[in-house]
Amino acid sequence: QVHLVESGGGLVKPGGSLRLSCAASGFTFNDYYMSWIRQAPGKGLEWVSYISSSGLTIYYADSVKGRFTISRDSARNSLDLQINSLRAEDTALYYCARVRTVAGSYYMDVWGNGTTVTVSS
Amino acid sequence: EIVLTQSPATLSLSPGERATLSCRASQSVNTYLAWYQQKPGQAPRLLIHDASNRATGIPARFSGSGSGTDFTLTISSLEPEDFAVYYCQERISWPPGITFGGGTKVEIK
Predict the structure, then answer these.
(1) pLDDT of B29 above 80
(2) Could you please report the per-residue DSSP string of B15-46?
(3) Which has the closest alpha carbon to A7: A85, A78, A98, A88?
(4) Does residue B62 belong to the interface with chain A, where contact is any CB pair within 8 Å?
(5) Is B95 a residue whose pLDDT tops 90?
(6) What is the distance between the alpha carbons of residues A68 and A50, in angstroms, rounded to a whole number?
(7) Which of B31, B89, B97 sits opposite A59 (nearest CB)?
(8) CA distance A32 to B40
(9) Are residues A109 and B46, on separate chains, in Cβ contact within 8 Å?
(10) DSSP state, B57?
(11) Quick check: B19 and B82 in contact, CB under 8 A?
């Protein structure tokens, strides 16, 4: 069964750091692009970053560029997100998702249940 | 930068009625549009990809159409479990990324 499980969220002060992880199972992790998407309380979905299957292609939303770093570990079947210089507006539920890339189309067909990041003093 | 605008923001309907949700792109996006359903306290679920292709396990009452800049998600006859928030999503070629619409909430009238 295809499964994604996020972890690492928590309460952190402004300017602090966290490392989120996503454990993948039930599929060949190395074959897929992966992405992080977040959702602030009561708000819509916001794409954060994605990484190619090889790990060589990485893109970020402008709102997190320079502060967040996405990475993947094929040995652990894990996707990570290092988040630094946290701001109040980074408070959100962070989802890990598998990305299907088919002939130019990118869409997320498997989602985890998310891990919550709260930035507050 | 491509912006996806969903309308209406809220759709109030009764079970059994037809729901028509719109997603308009600020510039042409071919047919690379996806739709997701999100219920309270749950992760989003993929419904439609490439504008009109139902994802695995999605009931036939859900259909997608459109191309270019105007896309529609139709739920032919609302079931009680269909009341949720729906998002459209597109891949952006430049700057590379992914974007979501603001969502349409389908609520019980």
Answers:
(1) no
(2) TTS-EEEEEEESS--TT-EEEEEE-TTS--EE
(3) A78
(4) no
(5) no
(6) 11
(7) B97
(8) 28
(9) yes
(10) T
(11) yes
Encoding tokens for residue A106? 């990118």
Chain A residues with CB within 8 Å of chain B CB: 35, 37, 44-47, 50, 59-62, 95, 100, 102, 104-109, 111-114
> pLDDT of B57-87, one tens digit each?
999 999 999 998 999 999 999 999 999 999 9
Q: Collect all residues of chain A within an 8 Å Cβ-Cβ radius of residue B30.
A: 104
Phi, psi of B41, deg, nearest 5 = 75, 5
Q: Closest approach of chain A CAs to the CA of B51, in angstroms? A: 10
SS3 call for A112: coil
How far is the C-alpha of A47 from the C-alpha of A20, rounded, in Å?
15
Residue, of A105 and A81, whose pLDDT is higher: A81
pLDDT digits (tens, 9 = 90+) for A7-62: 999 999 999 999 999 999 999 999 999 999 999 999 999 999 999 999 999 999 99
Q: What's the token pair of residue B15? A: 């079970």
